[in-house]
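Retro notes (design track)

What went well: tokenization of the new backbones is finally stable.
What didn't: we kept losing track of which sequence belonged to which structure.
Fix going forward: every design gets posted as structure first, then sequence, in one message. First example under the new rule, 821 residues:
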């Protein structure tokens, strides 16, 4: 769909001078996602943490000519033949444009809201209905104030059904989303505690969500959920309700029986007065509930031609993640098994680009035919080829008959195969080396066979790291700070155990100002991985100067001896103004100058030109605890005075910083010019602040289950005897993996299927034993050692230590696996 820029000016009510003719088909809000500059209209959005106006010059250089701005900055005057559409609020303008676009279509639109399951319900509906409807839907979980307008913008004349998600985190937000989605059918999945911070009560949140449905013809929900039913009632929406129920045989969709078997569930229900039996390939309650919502949609839409029963049996799980894994021969694998369509390909290609920091890796795409796209293959693959070229893919391997037939449209290194089998048998398959490979396939092509063979085989115990949670935590702290306050992210000690490279890449992508490591070699490793933002080395050694200079690492300077050596070294190398960071000891009594040293430091600095004090800082000893608040205040005062004196004497601006994570949480007023974020980034709040997300999950699997008769002992030195016939699970994690031996003999627990199970016997080097008698755990089941459901702080409390030690103790032999949601 295209709009002329003149039309858009009218629709969003912008002020604009000297408009140049232009046709817009793409709305761009993230400068990193640019692929078609001429057709893009960039919205300079202001968020708590960033300001899109900053990227306009950069985008102009990349040939973008159309911008929606709220601030007409003087620097824009020089950007010739660019259109600037000036509005009061750029996000509102984007929403207005999307709402206008939506009004042009008179098709059924399903709006889905609720706390959980929105994306799953949307994707299930897509699987069930794509043969009868040409469906447009939200890509992945684009359900925010920004995601919704971008999703709706995709609507075009060929679509016959829309499915969009709406999520809110604040009162009044649904008011904005309603005209954009303008659903004709509403689904509310369920209401939980998620995103509750900004609401007075769950009722307020639910009622707010329901406003999405004010103009719907039908509203679908779980009628047995008294809370939602009451909310529907008080919102005066009951006359449109299609409440399904397991208890009320008068309900429009009555669920008579739900019968769970080993790998499937039989749902017996009365639908349109007819009793029907559906078999679905899931047994968990959430999936069953999601499927019933879909059944209710079918009841309303009454799709005719097909055998619905069969389609339910063929439902496939929805993969939400983009996994990054270490592959063989120095390859990295990104596995995206999410639905294969051009939108999700676009998103996955962006993700691949953001991971492409090490430019020595070749960018390879393994793509299957895109099925059910509703577009003719010829034009579809032309579009794909265009996209793939713009995303700088070096090599494409296409699998499927269509790709083989239309392969000539790709103008890069390419190969095509009819089937996944053909590809697996080919010589190419054994020759992957130094590549960043994106695997993107429709389910029928079973790309998991490819990824299994390309993945490096490892120990079954892994540390899973959620990169989206890292970003969330980073932004969460950022939102507590003034926009101009810089942030250092501490990735010392291998990123508190989570692994520094992937984290550093993610933080660099999200525009963190500084990284900090403990020793120079850690910094050098990050440079090798392509990290280009400034890096501070906290404990530089005299022997490491070479590594410092060669990798452009900025040392912390804590003594005159180190300062002199550093100055001498810069002079010897003929370097000037090398940035250093002056550490003042205000009571920690670890490394640092004394506050009284400041005049002498400045004197020394002024008589040389080799180094420049980039920053001055100190470290708090007890910012997490109110019992030390008097001491902390004293530290803050001593530091403020010393830093001010240093700046005065040096007569240039020096960045001042003292707060660590708990400091940011509890002494925000002392953020000064910069803060240093450590443990909070990894999801642990030292002061008990809510709102962080869990980052790392240490998980393993059950290798074997043994039946141990009452009276027998378990493990080395016979430390645990069982007093009943027991089921004992053996899991492949021991003290060599970092599982502290003090957890032996019921001193610690793991979580299996949401149930806590005690560790029994002494923990061995590579394995330990778990009592699973009270569960129905099976061999092969996943086991969580720590994670969301078993917080690190619980483990550290048991050992009378701190979460930092648990996180950094996970041995390097435990593979780190990174993912985005
Ligand atoms: C490790 C460290 C931090 C981060 O501390 P957290 O408590 O993890 O936030 C900050 N500053 C210095 C000097 C550090 O060594």
């Amino acid at each position: 769909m295209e709009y002329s820029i003149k039309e858009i000016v009218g629709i969003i009510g912008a002020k604009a001078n000297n408009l140049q003719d232009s046709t817009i088909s793409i709305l761009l809000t993230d400068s990193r996602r640019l692929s078609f500059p001429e057709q893009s209209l960039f919205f300079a959005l202001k968020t708590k943490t960033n300001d899109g106006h900053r990227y306009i010059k950069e985008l102009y250089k990349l040939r973008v000519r159309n911008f929606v701005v709220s601030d007409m900055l003087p620097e824009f005057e020089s950007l010739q033949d660019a259109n600037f559409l000036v509005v009061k609020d750029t996000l509102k303008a984007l929403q207005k444009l999307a709402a206008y676009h939506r009004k042009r279509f008179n098709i059924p639109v399903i709006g889905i809201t609720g706390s959980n399951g929105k994306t799953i319900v949307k994707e299930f509906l897509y699987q069930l209905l794509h043969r009868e409807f040409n469906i447009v839907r939200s890509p992945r979980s684009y359900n925010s104030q920004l995601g919704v307008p971008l999703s709706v913008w995709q609507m075009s004349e060929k679509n016959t059904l829309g499915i969009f998600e709406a999520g809110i985190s604040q009162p009044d937000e649904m008011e904005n989303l309603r005209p954009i989605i303008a659903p004709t059918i509403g689904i509310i999945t369920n209401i939980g505690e998620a995103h509750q911070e900004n609401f007075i009560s769950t009722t307020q949140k639910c009622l707010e969500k329901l406003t999405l449905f004010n103009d719907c013809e039908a509203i679908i929900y779980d009628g047995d959920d008294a809370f939602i039913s009451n909310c529907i009632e008080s919102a005066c929406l009951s006359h449109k309700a299609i409440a399904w129920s397991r208890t009320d045989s008068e309900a429009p969709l009555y669920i008579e029986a739900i019968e769970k078997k080993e790998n499937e569930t039989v749902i017996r229900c009365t639908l349109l007065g007819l009793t029907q039996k559906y078999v679905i390939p899931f047994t968990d309650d959430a999936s069953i509930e999601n499927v019933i919502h879909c059944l209710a949609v079918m009841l309303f839409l009454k799709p005719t031609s097909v055998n619905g029963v069969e389609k339910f049996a063929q439902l496939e799980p929805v993969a939400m993640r983009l996994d990054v894994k270490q592959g063989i021969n120095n390859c990295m694998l990104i596995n995206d098994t999410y639905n294969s369509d051009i939108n999700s390909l676009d998103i996955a290609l962006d993700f691949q680009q953001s991971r492409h920091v090490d430019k020595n890796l070749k960018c390879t795409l393994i793509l299957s035919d895109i099925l059910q796209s509703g577009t003719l293959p010829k034009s579809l693959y032309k579009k794909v080829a265009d996209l793939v070229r713009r995303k700088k893919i070096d090599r494409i391997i296409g699998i499927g008959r269509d790709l083989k037939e239309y392969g000539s449209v790709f103008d890069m290194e390419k190969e095509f195969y009819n089937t996944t089998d053909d590809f697996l048998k080919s010589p190419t398959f054994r020759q992957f080396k130094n590549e960043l490979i994106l695997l993107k396939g429709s389910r029928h092509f079973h790309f998991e066979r490819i990824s299994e063979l390309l993945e490096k085989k490892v120990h079954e115990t892994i540390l899973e790291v959620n990169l989206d949670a890292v970003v969330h935590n980073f932004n969460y702290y950022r939102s507590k700070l003034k926009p101009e306050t810089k942030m250092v992210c501490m990735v010392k000690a291998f990123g508190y155990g989570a692994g520094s490279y992937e984290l550093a890449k993610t933080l660099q992508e999200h525009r963190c100002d500084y990284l900090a490591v403990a020793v120079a070699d850690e910094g050098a490793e990050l440079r090798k991985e392509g990290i280009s933002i400034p890096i501070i080395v906290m404990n530089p050694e005299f022997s490491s100067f070479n590594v410092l200079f060669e990798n452009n690492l900025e040392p912390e300077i804590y003594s005159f001896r180190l300062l002199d050596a550093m100055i001498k070294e810069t002079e010897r190398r003929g370097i000037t103004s090398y940035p250093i960071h002056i550490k003042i000891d205000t009571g920690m009594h670890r490394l640092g100058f004394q506050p009284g040293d400041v005049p002498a430091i400045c004197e020394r600095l002024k008589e040389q030109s080799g180094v420049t004090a980039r920053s001055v800082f100190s470290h708090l000893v007890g910012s997490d605890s109110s019992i030390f608040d008097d001491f902390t205040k004293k530290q803050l005062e001593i530091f403020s005075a010393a830093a001010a004196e240093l700046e005065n004497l040096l007569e240039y601006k020096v960045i001042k910083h003292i707060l660590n994570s708990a400091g940011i949480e509890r002494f925000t007023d002392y953020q000064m010019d910069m803060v240093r974020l450590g443990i909070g980034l990894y999801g642990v709040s030292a002061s008990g602040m809510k709102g962080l997300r869990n980052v790392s999950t240490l998980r393993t699997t059950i290798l074997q289950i043994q039946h141990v008769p009452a009276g027998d002992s378990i493990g080395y030195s016979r430390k645990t005897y069982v007093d009943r016939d027991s089921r004992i699970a053996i899991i492949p994690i021991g003290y060599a993996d970092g599982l502290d031996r003090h957890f032996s003999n019921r001193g610690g627990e793991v979580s299996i299927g949401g149930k806590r199970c005690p560790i029994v016997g002494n923990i061995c080097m590579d394995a330990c034993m778990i009592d699973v008698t009270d569960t129905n755990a099976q061999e092969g089941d996943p086991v969580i050692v720590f994670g969301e459901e078993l917080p690190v702080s619980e483990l550290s409390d048991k050992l009378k230590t701190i979460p930092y030690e648990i996180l950094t103790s996970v041995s390097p032999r435990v593979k780190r696996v990174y993912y985005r949601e």
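Added context from the reviewer: Residues 490, 538, 619, 660-662, 676-680, 686 surround pyridoxal-5'-phosphate (CB under 6 Å).
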